[in-house]
Amino acid sequence: MNLVLALCIGILFTAGIVCLLQRCMMRLVVGLILLGQAANLIVFTGAGLTSGEPALVAEGAKVPPPGAADALPQAMVLTAIVIGFGLTVFALTLLNRARETSGHDDLDAFSETDRI
Amino acid sequence: MKGSFILEGAARLLLPWLVALSLVTFYRGHHLPGGGFIGGLLAASGFALIALGAGEGAARRALRVDPVGLMTCGLTVALVAALAGLFRGGGLLAGLWLPVWSLPLIGDVHLGTPMLFDFGVYLTVAGFALQVIFSLLEDAA
Amino acid sequence: MLLWPVLLLAAAGLISPYVARSRIPVWLLAAAPAGVFAWLLSSYLRLGVGETTAESLGWFDPLGASLDFVLDGFGGLLALLISGVGTLIVIYASGYLAGHRDLGRLLLLLFFFMASMLGLVLADNVILLFVFWELTSITSYLLVGFNHEDKAARAKALQALLVTGAGGLAMLAGFILLGTTAESWRLSEIVQAGDLVRSSPVYGALTACIIIGAAAKSAQVPLHFWLPNAMAAPTPVSAFLHSATMVKAGVFLLAKLSPALDGTLLWHGSLSVLGSATLITGAVLGIVQTDLKRILAYTTLSVLGILTLLIGIGTELAIKSMVVFLLGHALYKAALFMVAGTVDHETGTRDVRRLGGLRRAMPVTAVAALLAAFSKAGFPPFFGFVGKEYVYKTGTALDQAGTAFIVVAVVGNMFLLALALKAGLHPFWSKTPLDAPGRTVHEAPWSLWGPPLALALCGLAFGLAAGLVGEALVGKAVAAIRLEPMTSSLSLWHGLSLPLVLSVVTMAGGLLIYANRRLIWPHRGRIEAVPGPSSVYETMVGNLAEVAKRKTRILQSGALTRYVAIVIAAATFLLGWKFLRFGGWPDLTIGPDIEILPAVLCVLAAGAALGATIATSRLGVLVALGIVGIAIALLFLHYSAPDLAITQILVEALTVMLLMLVVYKLPPVRREPRPGVAAAKWALAAGFGGGMTLIVLQALELQVAPSISEQLATWSYPAAHGRNVVNVILVDFRALDTFGEMIVLTIAALGVLSLLARRKRKREDAGS
Fold first, then answer.
1. In chain C, whose CA is at the least distance from the CA of B72?
2. ipTM, 2 decimals?
3. Burial label, C596 (beta-carbon count in 10 A; 0-12, 13-18, 19+)
4. Residue A114 pLDDT class (50, 70, 90 cuts)
5. Is B125 on the interface with A (CB under 8 A)?
6. Are A79 and B31 in contact (CB < 8 Å)?
7. How much of chain A exceeds pLDDT 90, in percent?
8. How far, rounded to the nearest angstrom, does the alpha carbon of residue B91 sit from its chain's CA centroid?
9. Residue of C nearest to B91 (CA)
10. Where are the domains of chain A?
11. Most B CBs within 10 Å: which of A56, A79, A82, as the mutation test of the B interface?
C-alpha cells in the first residue's frame, strides 16, 4: 500500500512542479496548492499507516488502544493544512495585485514589481 | 458579485446553527475529533456563506466585530493562557486545571489553560479566514 | 567576573549617543574605562607570577560551548593597555570632535571596539576569541569609515575589513584544526599540549593558517597595505586601534600560542622573515611620507615587524624584549598620534612640509610630543631606550644569525629614530615656516593635550622605574607567554657593552637621516608608484565584482519560471545522485497489503491533479482541485485521522470559494505554446516526482531515532487531561509551535490587508 501512496505523492509533485513551471498565474497558485498537498501526504505517510484506530483515549482507559495511529504527524499536518491555506490566500492576493499593476499575468515578464 | 436570494436566506437560517456547532466542536475537541482549528474554520464558513449570499457588508454586520480584532483577541487569550503557567511557576505554557465539575446534561466539565489556549486558536483561525474572505470580496466588488 | 568589564564598556557605548546629545560633559564617559582599568589593575597586581584567574560560564552545555575567560600576565597587561589608553582616548575624542554631530556615534563604536578588544585578550576559548576577533574587525570597519559620506574613506574601510576578514577566515580554519588537534578549545589547555600539536600531520596547515590570520590583523608584509590606508579614520581612532590595540591582536595571539606552535623551522623561519620584511618595508615607505599620520602608520608597521621578528626568535630575552617594546610602543605611539591630531585640529594641516615652530603657540603639546618622540627614538632614560637595548641584547646573545638580526634591527631602529624626530620634533622645533592660511594657532584645550602628555610621562616614568615595571608587569607577561618565570630582572642601564655601542651607532645614523629629511621628500611619488600588494588587491576586488555581475546576469534573469527550473533541477540532480551513488533502492513490488478503497482514492487524487495541470477552463481547474482535496481528506479519514479529514474538507471549501472570487478576474489559462519546451518541463517535473516517490519509500523503511509519539500518547490523558491526542499535542505538548502558527496567520492576514488597502487608497486618489 505504501507504494501506491508513494506513487500518488510522486504524481502530485510532478503535477505541482509542471504548474509552477508555467508562465500563467492561475497555474502557479494551483501548483502551490498541489505541492502543499503532496508535502502533507509525505509527513502523514511517514509515520506509517493505520486504518480504523484514531489516537483517542477511550472512556475509562488511560492510554489509547494498542496499535492506534501516531498522533504526532497528524498534529503537524493539521497545522500545515491551515498554514498552507494562509499561504495560498497570500499568494493569490499578491499575484492578483501584481497582475493589476503590470497589466499582464506573464510570470517571466515581471521586471518592475516594486510598484506594487 | 450579485447575491443570491436563496443562498442568502439559507445562510441566515444556518448561521446560528453553524456557530453553535463550531463552539460544540471546539469544546469537545479535547476529547474527540474537533478543537480550535476545526471550530474556527466552521464558524468562518458560516459567515462566509452570508458574505457570498448577501455581500461582505452584511456578513461584517452579522459578525459585529472586526476580524482583525478577533485575531488580536485570539492571540491575547492564547498569550494569557501561556503566561498563566509561567506565573504559577510551572514554566511557559504549563497547563493549569480547575477541579472537575459535574453538570446535568453536559456531564463532567474540566476546564484548564490548554482549553483557553485552544479558544485563542479558535478566535485566531476564525478571524484569519474571515479577514481574507472579506478582503477579497471587497476587492472583487 | 571577567565578563562584566566587557559588558560595562558595551553599555557605556549604548548610552554615549544620548550623553553626546545632552548637556552632560562627554568626557565623563571615560569613567567607564577608567573604572575597568582600576579594577583590572588591582586584580593584576594581586596576581602572582605565572598565576591566572579563570572563570567559565556555560551558556549552551549540550554543545560544550561556554564563555571561558582568563586573566593572565600577558592578556592582563594588554587589557590594562586597552582600558588605560581607552580612558585617555575617550577624553581626547570628546575634545577632538567637540560639537560634532556624530560624536555620539564615534563614541558608541569606540566603546564597542574597546569591549570587543578587551574580550579578545581575556578570552580563554579559541571560538570565543575568534568571535571577539571578528567583532574588532567589524567595529574597526565602521570606525575607519566614520566619514561615510567620503567615498575614499568608505573604500579604505572596506579594504581594511576585507583584508582582516580574509585573514580571520584563515584564522578560523586554523583554530578549528588547532582545537581538534589539541583536543581542547581552551587556550590555557592548548598551550600545554604543544607536543601533541607539533607531532600532528596537520601542524603545518594549522600553523600557516594562524600565521596568515595574525599577519593580516597585525599588518605584516604583504598584507600591510591596509594599515596606512586606514588613516582615513578620525585621529582618536587611529591612536587607539592602529597603534595601541587592534594591530597588536595578531602579535598577541602569536605570542600566546607560541608554546604550542614554536620549535619548528616553519614557525621561527616564517615569523622572522615576515617580521624583518615588515620592519624594513615600514621604514623605507615611512621615510618618504610627509603626512604626520601616515609617517606614524608606517612606523607602526616597523614596530609590528620587530615584534613578530622577536616572537619568531622566541628566546627568553626575545620575548622579554617583545613585551617591553610592545608596552613602550603603545605608550609613545598613541601619544604621538594624539599630538598629530591636535596639530591637525589647531592648524588644519598634517603635512610636515608646512609645519614648523609650533612650540611657541602650543607649548604643552610640544612638551608631550618631545617626550613621546624621545621615547620612540630610544633616548635614555625613556622606556623606548630600554626596549631597544633589550632588542640588541637579544641579538648579541643569539648563536645563529645574530649578525643578520643585529643589522636588520639597527637599520630599522635608525629609521624609527629619524621618523620619531620627524613626527614629534619637526613640527614644533624646526625652522620650517608655518603654512596655515587663515588660522591663528594657539594652544589646544586640555582634553587635547592632557591625554598625550599623560602617556608620554608614563613613558618617561616607566624608563626611570624600569626595575619596578619589570617586576610588576613585564615579568608576569613573560611568564604567562613562556609558561616559566623570567630568570633576570629588567633594568635601564647595562653598563658599557655591545648593545650600548649599537645604540650609539643607531643614534648617529638616525640623526643623520633626520638631518637630511628634506632631501628625501621629493622622491615620495616615485617610491609609492612601485606596484605592491595593494594593486593585487585592487585587481582581485575588481574581478570579483565583475564575476558577480556576470553570474547575476545569468542566474537572476527576472524570469520566475527559470528560477523554479534551476531550483528543481538542482534538487532532482541531488536526488538522482543520492540513489546512483549510494544506492538504497527501495522495494518496488506491490505487496499483498493493498486495499481497494485507499487505492481508488489515490488514483482519484493523482488523476485529478494531472487534470488540474492540463485543464484549460478555469472551472475545470477548480473542480479538479476540489477532487484532489476531497480525495486526500477521505484518505485521512480512512487512515485514522478524523481531525485532519475535517480540517482538510473545511479548508478545501474555503479555498475553492476564494479561488472563485479571484479566478473570474484572471485571464484564461494558457498553455505552453512550444511543444518542445512543454515536454522538457514535464520531463523535469516527472524526474523530481519520481525521485520523491523513491525517497518516500526509502524513508518508510528507515527508523533513525526512537519516536516520541508513544510517550506523548501515554501522557495525553493522565498528564494533560485530554482524550484526543492530536488536540493535546496541538494545545499542550507543542503549544509553542501552535502559538507561532497563530502569529504566522495574523501576519498573513495583515499582509493581505495591506496589499489590498494600498490599492484601495490608490483607487480613491484616482477617483478624487
1. C746
2. 0.94
3. exposed
4. very low
5. yes
6. no
7. 40
8. 27
9. C736
10. 2-48+69-104
11. A82
